[in-house]
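Try this one yourself first.
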């Protein structure tokens, strides 16, 4: 079979690219051996956030007496919770299938690998030819020495999200986004959680200011999540009902389950890249230029397969931009800021430059902050932890923002629009925001940067 575009991988980059290609009238085939939606929808972003939202009820119920409302101690029906989470995923994957069909995309359920320029070999035995090929095969969890996923006691993030059990004692190896999000969920479910991080600080791979990290660490400690940074997990000794994790500082941690969450690596192996002249870097990422072109003619790569933040929305943006490029619009993503949202408690969200990065870049900058504790809506929600921060250039253009607090993942979009479009502090402050709401906090932070704050002391 011959197509205009063939896409290997139906994650948030691949299926979105396929839908847009179909909308543009290109004869498109999407090749996927597993589930539509990829890791994000089936074993990552969506189930994590579903469980995050569900378990937040437990935290709120535990403190409801503060406002004069009392509940009987909640009980957790683990199988029902897991089934509900799976139902959310199933609904979305079914929807993706319908959208692909409506867009005229052919879906092939098989494993695909390159078989020379313009050719794809399928595990089903049927060859495919295409004028353009898009590689969108995503990433997978990293193993480290002494902790193999083949061991029953060692969980990957996939295992943790399956919710097959709620361990009494959970040791999380890795203080990055995935490790901290799952630590938050399992602590709410009742597990005693310890996070072990090799590097001196949690979330060290992100451009977050010290104030943000300190706020999160204080909140995690208050929730009962133990953090051990600058510590190496050397291995474990199996026990009758769990394991003893050995640390390089001489301490041993008893665990019923060990969650290994030290990062992800691109799925660039066994793709037949060498048959078409597609090169990778030393870490296995596919080399691409600013137009997402690989080192082989008419072969492109997007998402976790290429360098950059491993985020579903980045992959989707690349997929759409690439499809539009096939229709004549050049890819223009180099200057697009990618927002980040972390579902810890409190949430963290950021976009653009941090205060530290902005100061290092040279020009004078303006900083504005506003605490959640000064927002009427936040106090009414019993969500007073956190703050809004905005970073602006000396000409008042907004360069970046960080939000720590309730609904930060939703609130960051206004800041992302401002950074992407070069809006000024005045553009935000002169826009009337409804009251009482959480987005007022971003407006107040911009006013603070201008020295015109009303509801907090000016800097």
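Now uncover the answer:
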């Amino acid at each position: 079979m011959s197509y205009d575009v063939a896409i290997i991988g139906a994650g948030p980059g691949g299926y979105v690219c396929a839908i847009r290609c179909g909308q543009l009238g290109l004869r498109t085939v999407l090749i996927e051996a597993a589930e539509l939606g990829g890791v994000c929808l089936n074993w990552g972003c969506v189930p994590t956030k579903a469980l995050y939202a569900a378990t937040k009820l437990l935290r709120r119920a535990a403190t409801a007496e503060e406002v004069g409302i009392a509940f009987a101690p909640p009980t957790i029906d683990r199988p029902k919770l897991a089934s509900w989470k799976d139902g959310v995923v199933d609904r979305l994957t079914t929807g993706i299938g319908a959208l692909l069909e409506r867009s005229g995309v052919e879906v092939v359920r098989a494993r695909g690998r390159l078989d020379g320029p313009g050719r794809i070999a399928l595990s089903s035995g049927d060859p495919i030819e295409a004028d353009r090929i898009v590689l969108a095969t995503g990433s997978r969890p990293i193993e480290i020495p002494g902790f193999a996923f083949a061991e029953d006691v060692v969980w990957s993030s996939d295992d943790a999200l399956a919710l097959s059990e709620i361990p009494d004692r959970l040791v999380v190896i890795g203080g990055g986004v995935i490790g901290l999000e799952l630590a938050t969920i399992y602590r709410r479910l009742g597990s005693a959680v310890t996070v072990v991080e090799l590097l001196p600080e949690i979330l060290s791979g992100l451009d977050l200011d010290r104030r943000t990290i300190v706020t999160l660490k204080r909140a995690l400690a208050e929730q009962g999540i133990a953090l051990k940074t600058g510590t190496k997990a050397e291995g474990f000794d199996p026990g009758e009902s769990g394991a003893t994790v050995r640390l390089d500082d001489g301490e041993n941690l008893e665990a019923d389950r060990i969650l290994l969450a030290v990062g992800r690596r691109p799925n660039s192996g066994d793709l037949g890249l060498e048959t078409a002249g597609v090169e990778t870097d030393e870490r296995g990422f596919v080399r691409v230029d600013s137009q997402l072109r690989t080192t082989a003619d008419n072969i492109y790569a997007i998402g976790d397969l290429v360098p950059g933040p491993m985020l579903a929305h980045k992959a989707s943006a690349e997929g759409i931009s690439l499809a539009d490029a096939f229709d004549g619009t050049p890819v223009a993503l180099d200057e697009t800021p990618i927002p980040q949202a972390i579902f810890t408690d409190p949430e963290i969200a950021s976009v653009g430059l941090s205060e530290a990065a902005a100061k290092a870049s040279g020009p004078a900058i303006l900083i504005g902050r506003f605490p959640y504790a000064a927002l009427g809506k936040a106090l009414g929600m019993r969500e007073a932890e956190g703050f809004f921060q905005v970073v602006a250039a000396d000409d008042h253009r907004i360069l970046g923002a960080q939000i720590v607090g309730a609904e930060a993942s939703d609130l960051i979009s206004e800041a992302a629009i401002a950074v992407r479009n070069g809006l000024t502090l005045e553009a935000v402050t002169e826009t009337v925001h409804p009251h009482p709401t959480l987005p007022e906090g971003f407006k107040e932070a911009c006013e603070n940067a201008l020295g015109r704050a009303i509801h907090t002391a000016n800097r």
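Discussion: The domain at 346-449 is CATH 3.30.390.30 (Enolase-like; domain 1). The CA atoms of residues 242 and 256 lie 4 Å apart.
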